[in-house]
Design brief:
Helices cover 0% and strands 58% of the residues. It has 85 residues and is mainly beta. The protein has one domain: Immunoglobulin-like (Sandwich), CATH 2.60.40. Strand 1 and strand 2 form a beta hairpin. It starts with a strand and ends with a strand. It comes from Actinacidiphila acididurans. This is CARDB domain-containing protein.
Length: 85
């Protein structure tokens, strides 16, 4: 889910432990758009057991002064870090 809300976006993120051991995850979600719009969301989970899923909704906002929220941003997951617990 990606929904515009004033000067920010609401981004639903779901992280699943697809490994065979308990692990913690650190995931980044980046939203970009015209005129240099750039927002980064940092998602950190606690320990997830194999097969466990953690879902939450986060607010993504470009902190630059005067940033113009794009109508159709590009959303990418540039990095995911997994640490076996």
């Amino acid at each position: 889910m990606l929904k515009s809300s004033g000067d920010a976006f609401r981004v639903a993120v779901e992280v699943t432990n697809t490994g065979s051991k308990p692990a913690k995850y650190l995931t980044y979600v980046r939203l970009t758009g015209p005129l240099g719009y750039n927002a980064l969301v940092r998602v950190e989970t606690g320990v997830l057991q194999p097969g466990d899923v953690r879902s939450a909704v986060y607010t993504a906002r470009d902190e630059a002064e005067g940033a113009i929220i794009p109508e159709h941003p590009t959303v990418v997951v540039p990095e995911v870090f997994r640490t076996v617990a």
